[in-house]
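Lay summary. Proteins are chains of building blocks that fold into shapes, and those shapes determine what they do. In this project we predict the shape from the chain. Here is one chain we studied, written as its sequence of building blocks.
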Amino acid sequence: MQINRVVNSAAIVFLVMSSAALAHVFPRTQVPGASETVASPAQIRITFDGPLEPAFSSLTVTDANGKQVNTKKTAVDAQHHENISVALPALQAGRYTVHWVAIADDGHRTHGDYSFTVK
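And here is the predicted shape, written in a compact code that computers can read:
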């Protein structure tokens, strides 16, 4: 009976720690932010709640017609792997959508999008 309690307790601790290690990452801050109206931004920056895998995480910005407007490659900050950005050309007035793919350093994938408006 005592051995079963020890084994059950160890299994619970293992499951809790395993689920914490297999976490997905999600945006904490976005610049420009969702639904924000701004002057043409020089870049899009998103900070996630955990480190990203630089080789597989990306940002794509499209205009109202669905055409990709960023031509530069996405960059994950070498010092702070939670930060990802992409440079933008000068944008015309209108609505733009940021599509993000975040691969956590443990391999889990999340994705999403949000829009902002250039005045």
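What the prediction tells us: The helical segments are 2-21.
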